[in-house]
Amino acid sequence: MIGQMRAAFAKLVIAGQAQLPLSRICLQLTCPNVQQVRSAVTGFNSHNSDQLWKSISVVSKNGARRGRGKKVNARVIKDLYRNQVLGDGKVKMVWPGLNTSVVRGRQIVQQEKLDTPKEDPNEAVREAKEEKLARRKLHPLDRGFSSANICGRNLKNTTNLELHKDFDFRVVDNRNVCHMTGLVGRYQTAAVVVACGNGNGLIGLGAGKSMLRLKAVQKASTRAMNRLVYIERHNNHTVLHDFFSHFYATKVFVSRKPEGHGLKCHRVIALICKLAGIKDIHVKVEGSTMPMNVAKAFVLGLVRQKTYQDLAEDKKLHVVEFDSLRRNFPNVLASPTVCRKNADIPTTESLDFTQHALDGRVRYVKPRQPPFFTKLKGWEVHLKKEERSRGYRQNLYELTAKYGETRSFLADKYPEARQKNKIYKF
């Protein structure tokens, strides 16, 4: 400190502003409060707080081999400098060299007490804690699968990432993965799978990994936009046909449903359906239910769907739909360029459309248990009374759809086996 003052005074002498000799000035500056103290270097002032905590929590190699110190990382390491202001305490003081300079102008700053209004020492801590721990209120539609996890959330409303304005982005899977390295040890990263879609047939899946979860979400969102595919839909509300798909140990059986049925499927598949614009579907998932595998199996099945024209060309037959909502009225969906006749179709060939669409696989449907009253004697009496009219209306629908009128299959041989001039009100 004396050396600094001498250097400052030497500059004044050179500038012609000093009037006293240097030796006399130094004698006047010598006082009990200003002393040159040798700075001792010890372990407490040469290491930071992290190194000090590690010195008391580290385990030697021999101790680690014997199984000691397994929960060292679980200890709560305290921050020694948290909420501490250098030189300030309960009594506000001026400490030269700590919270103020030693020399102010040509005078040495002395220790003194500051008469300042009393402030709450925890006010700044409370404000910081409220700002950090304040829970951001989310809209119920943006909370995702659960409020604690990012899966299923709307990334546009819950993050500040730069995303495409015409697409909706949702997190499908969120995991912490790690692997051992010889240099760093256990290397942990965040693995995220994001699905994006515009609600009109476009869907994309992307995966990303990073040390920071938000950065992994940004990577996955970018890759999802680069891998967009278009999905064909029937009347813009369901899939074209029933299909089977699998990805590793995950098997997916998809069934087409009429309008108004809704989404009855796994929550990951329901999320992808909303992004692609599919409103009515029924999906049965068998095997592994890992979210990433379920999403990939379903998207692969959507991409591999065949159009009605492709199905007609494969079988060389007409594709006809019998819709129960239209009382099984036949509707021709596609016709092949060359159609086979009945004589060309072998008897061993299966004409079941569902079996053909599922690639020869049929999902096992567990039969329902009959209700309890079917075992009672009164139920047998009821069946005998209703035997004549049982299935009458259903048979009427099927005959009208098949022949265009209410007639028997023997009507060609026996013309009287036909009802004429009779109008039915359904």
From TrEMBL:
GO terms for molecular function: RNA binding; structural constituent of ribosome. It is found in: Mitochondrion. InterPro entries: Ribosomal_Su5_D2-typ_SF, Ribosomal_uS5, Ribosomal_uS5_C, Ribosomal_uS5_N, Ribosomal_uS5m_N, Ribsml_uS5_D2-typ_fold_subgr. The keyword Ribonucleoprotein applies. Residues 113-132 are annotated as: Disordered. Signal peptide: none annotated. One of its GO terms (cellular component) is mitochondrial inner membrane. It comes from the Eukaryota. Residues 185-231 form the S5 DRBM domain. Keywords: Mitochondrion, Ribonucleoprotein, Ribosomal protein. GO terms for biological process: translation. Component of the mitochondrial ribosome small subunit (28S) which comprises a 12S rRNA and about 30 distinct proteins. Belongs to the universal ribosomal protein uS5 family. This is Small ribosomal subunit protein uS5m. It comes from Megalurothrips usitatus (bean blossom thrips).
